[in-house]
Amino acid sequence: MLTFIALLALLALFMVFRMPIAFAMGLVGFFGLALQLGWRPAFAVLERAFFDSSSSFILVAIPLFILMAELLTSGDVTRRAIFACQSWIGHVKGGLAMATVAASVILAALVGSSTASTAAMAASAYPEMRNHNYADRLAAAVVSVGGTLAVVVPPSIVLVVYGVLTETSIGKLFIAGIVPGLLTATGLAVVIKFIAMRTDQAPKGDPFDLGKAARASRHIIPMALLMVAVIGAIYGGIASPSEAAALGVMGSLLIILAQRTISFSAFNRSVSGAIRATVMIVTIVTCSAIFANYLVFTRITHSLLEFTSTTELPREAILIFMVLILLVMGMFMDQLAILSLSMPLAFPTAMALGYDPIWFGIVVTKTVEIGLLTPPLGLNAYVASAQTGVPLRTIFKGVVPFLLMEVLVLVLLLCFPQITLWLPSLMLK
User: Which residue ranges make up each domain of the chain?
Assistant: First the structure.
């Protein structure tokens, strides 16, 4: 136990000195295995962990979904989706902000990355809101909050990583994220409408023009069809997530080639960006496997499972404790780092308590989504601040009412699991 505590302290030290979380976990896991088993067995476990985790077929979905997002963003498709949403509801008070949330849902279903979605919104939706005299505090907050929808709405990269780490059906996770994602978007729109009615932070936009709205919508019809094809293929059992991801990449290429909105250099940047992001995620997954192997050999996981089976605490109390820990971790770490660190212990514990792995995955994902908005890290707030020039202090103040709504949605998901499990239960086998 003393060795385990010392290695955890070493892991914390690595993180304080800003070592990438993947390398920090891999090194600590390897050193732990070497102390536990010896150097030669540790190298054997290292080799096996790298091979087993990196050769998983389901990992193919990660680069494909990332490439789909990169292609659509480089091809100007995402910006057109934002303007289309704004043309329909931007004329009402607070409408531009609500249109930004609606566009965020569309982007989430195409991009799968919260930071990419936030950056796209900051570049396209924020200037439009400022041109219509929206307050910096609200405009930047909406951009930050809207980007978090990509964590829950499929094809979320976070859900893919959770599925890989816990060996849970990624197809069912994707379908399970639809209702919570739409519920979150509805809650954000309610908060915007409340702020618009009670303050002068969100004035009306331009008068409604049916012709302009119809012309703008032409550009998002192919995107909507692509969304339906990708998610529908998974829901109907026609394709696995990896196959659906390949369908998404092919559809994205056809859209941007038909619309002639991408250059050869932009295409190269898209592929390079997808490769960099994929290498980072796969490295996190493989190093997490090394750390998980160390936990197995120390029997920490076994001891924790024994505790949960013998303790007199109600299982709801243990679940709330885990959620609170994840919320605190979200204040200091990004979502992939949280998953890689916590799932080797949290997932077996939740399964021992009898919770559904699909439902638990959405709860965890929703919890780490909240962490994207909370100081001092608040990654989405940092991205929005860098893109818009709005001070971080102003953005964090602006996201407070939205955070309250996010917590309310999380409580609803905890109290009513059927919100999450209803759609997956209807999936074709």
Answer: 56-262+299-425
pLDDT single digits (tens) 190-246: 999 898 888 887 777 667 777 777 777 777 778 778 878 887 887 777 877 778 888
| Tokens, residue 106 | 């569309």
The token duo for 217 is 């919508």
DSSP state of 57: G
Residue length of the chain: 429
- Listing DSSP states for 290-328 in one string gives HHHHHHHHHTHHHHHHHHHHH--S-HHHHHHHHHHHHHH
Answer for the pair 380, 115: CB distance below 8 angstroms, yes or no.
yes
Nearest 5°: CA angle at 336, between 330 and 339?
Answer: 75
CA 191/CA 3 separation, integer angstroms: 49
Question: Within 10 Å of residue 297's Cβ, how many Cβ atoms?
Answer: 16
Distance of CA 93 to the CA centre of its chain: 29
Q: Token pair of 125, please?
A: 């939706």
Total-model pTM: 0.76
Residues 194, 270: Cα–Cα separation, whole Å? 39
Question: Percent helix, strand and coil across the chain, each rounded to 5?
Answer: 80, 0, 20
Dist. CA 207–CA 164, nearest whole Å: 48
